[in-house]
Design brief:
two-stranded antiparallel ribbon, mainly alpha, Hypothetical Protein Ta1238, Chain: A
């Protein structure tokens, strides 16, 4: 089976439910950001081979991002629920207890996996801004992506701590 159809050569494509839209539609900006984020999570996983628990969490998030994409396209039933956002909050709280309190900005660097998680954080923030442009200000998707950015920030700090680097202050 070919992976190309030539259908998109005209600058248009279809959503999962068959709607024909221009590739410049804001929906595809968000979907592209989610795809980019998922790819960077995969890259982070490749650098975090010693962090088994964290890599399992990241793998789970990769699956959730596919669910996010289907929810965004209106596929029912919605898969991303408040349960997922609460789960992220619990993980953030758990990891935050292991870290020193922050009273100033930190630089987004350190161990390779942590640096990539900072990239994930910024892609999640960009996705959040584009979700708002898509008029998705309400609902679980915006809450989830907002919390996901916080999760990546916290996880980057944990990875640096675990590798002996620690936070690098501005």
């Amino acid at each position: 089976m070919r992976i190309y159809t030539r259908f998109g050569d005209t600058g248009k494509t279809r959503t999962f439910d068959g709607k024909l839209l221009a590739k410049s539609n804001q929906l595809f900006e968000v979907l592209g950001n989610l795809d980019e984020l998922n790819s960077y999570i995969g890259l982070a996983i490749s650098f975090l081979t010693k962090e088994k628990e964290l890599t399992l969490e990241l793998l789970e998030i990769q699956h959730q991002l596919f669910d996010f994409s289907s929810d965004l396209q209106g596929i029912k039933p919605e898969k991303i629920t408040s349960k997922f956002t609460r789960s992220l909050e619990k993980k953030i709280d758990k990891y935050s207890e292991l870290l020193p309190e922050l009273n100033q900005f930190i630089l987004p660097n350190g161990q390779q996996g942590a640096s990539i998680l900072h990239i994930c954080r910024t892609i999640a923030r960009r996705t959040e801004r584009h979700l708002v442009l898509l008029n998705q200000e309400e609902g679980e998707l915006l809450k989830f992506i907002n919390r996901l950015s916080d999760y990546f920030f916290t996880l980057a700090r944990i990875v640096n701590k675990n590798s002996g680097v620690g936070d690098i202050y501005y």
